[in-house]
Automatic annotation (TrEMBL):
<dbReference type="GO" id="GO:0035723">
    <property type="term" value="P:interleukin-15-mediated signaling pathway"/>
</dbReference>
<dbReference type="GO" id="GO:0045121">
    <property type="term" value="C:membrane raft"/>
</dbReference>
<dbReference type="GO" id="GO:0042110">
    <property type="term" value="P:T cell activation"/>
</dbReference>
<dbReference type="InterPro" id="IPR013783">
    <property type="entry name" value="Ig-like_fold"/>
</dbReference>
<protein>
    <submittedName>
        <fullName>LAG3 protein</fullName>
    </submittedName>
</protein>
<dbReference type="InterPro" id="IPR007110">
    <property type="entry name" value="Ig-like_dom"/>
</dbReference>
<feature type="domain" description="Ig-like">
    <location>
        <begin position="50"/>
        <end position="131"/>
    </location>
</feature>
<dbReference type="GO" id="GO:1990782">
    <property type="term" value="F:protein tyrosine kinase binding"/>
</dbReference>
<dbReference type="GO" id="GO:0042289">
    <property type="term" value="F:MHC class II protein binding"/>
</dbReference>
<dbReference type="GO" id="GO:0070374">
    <property type="term" value="P:positive regulation of ERK1 and ERK2 cascade"/>
</dbReference>
<dbReference type="GO" id="GO:0009897">
    <property type="term" value="C:external side of plasma membrane"/>
</dbReference>
<dbReference type="InterPro" id="IPR036179">
    <property type="entry name" value="Ig-like_dom_sf"/>
</dbReference>
Length: 158
């Protein structure tokens, strides 16, 4: 896993033997075990790493008005009950939520308004709820709705 894995050597003296993986890949999912020996004492811990994979087809950035398929999968072993997608989770008219039985969401004609923060939430039969957030980029024209722009003489116009 080198060079994606590191230990914080300075933290070891304080009893922190954390492992850092950056970036995490789907094949990194599984059970991790750590053993630390100090003089005659041995300490151990077990940590299970679950991984969520968000896939865009075509990949980021997306071109405006071209079909977009977003899918969300996890290494969790229980049966998937529901997948929900949340877009711009603040209150207001641009906040949207989509739920389905599968992990996929298709947007037939993505627009500039589809860009920004998305979160997929996976709900499983064992009551586990797992989510991941990602930023969607959409390439397109985000200008005035009218092709005519007025500017005062002597000022700048965009």
């Amino acid at each position: 896993m080198k060079p994606r894995v590191s230990l914080q050597d300075s933290a070891l003296r304080n009893g922190n033997f954390s492992l850092r993986i950056d970036p995490v890949r789907s094949e990194d999912a599984g059970l991790y075990e750590a053993w630390v020996r100090y003089d005659t004492e041995v300490h151990s811990c077990h940590v299970e790493l679950g991984v969520i994979t968000v896939t865009l087809s075509p990949p980021n950035p997306v071109i405006e008005k071209e079909l977009l398929l977003m899918s969300c999968n996890s290494s969790h072993q229980a049966s998937l009950v529901e997948t929900c997608w949340f877009h711009k989770e603040h209150l207001g008219p641009t906040s949207r939520t989509f739920c389905s039985l599968s992990g996929a969401l298709s947007i037939l004609h993505p627009a500039m308004s589809d860009a920004g923060s998305w979160r997929c939430q996976l709900r499983y039969s064992d009551k586990e709820i797992i989510s991941a957030t990602f930023s969607l980029q959409v390439l397109g024209f985000d200008g005035p709705t009218s092709p005519v722009v007025y500017a005062a003489a002597g000022s700048a116009a965009d």
